[in-house]
Amino acid sequence: MDDGVFDLRTNPVHLGLGAVAFTLPEFTGDMAWYERYGERTVDDGVEGRLVSVHTFTEPWDTWEMHPRGHELVACIAGTIVLHQEIDGEVRTVTLEAGHAVINDPGVWHTADVAESATALFVTAGMGTEIRPR
Questions:
Q1: What are the Cα distances from residue 46, in Å, to 49, 59, 89?
Q2: Please, what is the Cα angle at 88 between 108 and 101, to 5 degrees?
């Protein structure tokens, strides 16, 4: 019998219109996964949110930006140094376990970690852009 328990580190959740929530297929990290996610949740438009947990052991090699909604980044273990590019200036914040920050729509962001760190993300992903770091 399935008790409904799942691992958010491997199976993200989608929050959609009508206050629905459902688990997603195992996260692979490749663009094809994101494309399938976008196709499956397109009807939720900009109101849909991707909830995921990721552990990082090295700095990100890209910047990303979510043009159509806010993103919550909550550090749940370790330390994350988050860089946000706001109006052409880079703002750097350090997040330790329990600390969080919001990336506003259109803000490019990337992160550094010195050791293993884990974060929870609640992302308005429609239209997300990536660029090299």
A1: 8, 28, 27
A2: 45
Domain boundaries, the chain: 13-132
- pLDDT band of residue 3 (cuts 50, 70, 90) is confident
**Residues with Cβ < 8 Å from 62, sequence gap 6 or more?**
110, 130, 131, 132, 133
pLDDT in tens, 69-126: 999 999 999 999 999 999 999 999 999 999 999 999 999 999 999 999 999 999 998 9
Q: What backbone phi and psi angles, to 5 degrees, belong to 63?
A: -100, 150
Report pLDDT for 49: 97
Burial of 35 (0-12, 13-18, 19+ CB in 10 A): exposed
* pLDDT tens track for 118-131: 999 999 989 999 99
Superfamily of domain 13-132: Jelly Rolls (2.60.120.10)
Let me know the angle formed at the C-alpha of 130 by 125 and 133, rounded to the nearest 5 degrees.
140
Sign of the C-alpha dihedral computed for residues 121, 64, 29 and 70 taken in this order: positive
